[in-house]
Design a protein that fits this description.
By secondary structure, this protein is mostly helical. Helix content is about 65%, strand content about 0%. It has seven helices and no strands. The radius of gyration is 16 Å and the shape is globular.
Length: about 150
């Protein structure tokens, strides 16, 4: 695709499984990428989704936005969210979560429980996987499950 994209092009690209936000595609299929790398991308994508959600709410004071985002992206909050997602995941998604949970991703931050950190890494791995697969619709479905008790 050359030249500027219009909204019809974006819908067509997303429907084809290509992520229009992934300007630089990884050299391998998402399922072959190291889970730590998927989690690295998933962390950024999850943070972006949280920020978009918070900005959509009435209180847009920067201190409030930061405080709320920090609550939603903590290892404990991501572990709780993953537990809510698990009954809704496909077999493929569950396999990605297991890969992310079982990977060696370094020492958890001092303030994070190691079990929470592993499950947060698993959630981020799944988010990164779906992002690179161009499955933004599925990310949206899961994120709406995440927000169900907040709205």
């Amino acid at each position: 695709m050359t030249g500027p994209m219009n909204s019809g092009d974006v819908v067509e690209v997303v429907a084809s499984g290509v992520n229009p936000l992934a300007l630089h595609q990884p050299p391998k299929k998402a399922g072959l990428i190291n889970p730590v790398v998927l989690a690295y991308m998933g962390d950024a994508v999850f943070e972006m989704l949280v920020r978009q959600y918070l900005i959509s709410l009435p209180n847009n004071k920067s201190h409030h936005l930061h405080k709320e985002a920090t609550k939603m992206v903590s290892a404990k909050a991501q572990r709780e969210l993953l537990e809510r997602w698990l009954p809704h995941l496909t077999e493929e998604e569950t396999d990605i979560v297991k890969r992310g949970r079982n990977t060696k991703s370094g020492a958890p931050p001092k303030n994070a429980d190691p079990a929470d950190y592993r499950k947060a890494t698993a959630l981020e791995c799944l988010v990164g996987y779906l992002y690179f697969e161009g499955r933004l619709d599925r990310l949206g479905e899961l994120f709406h499950i995440a927000l169900a008790d907040r709205e």
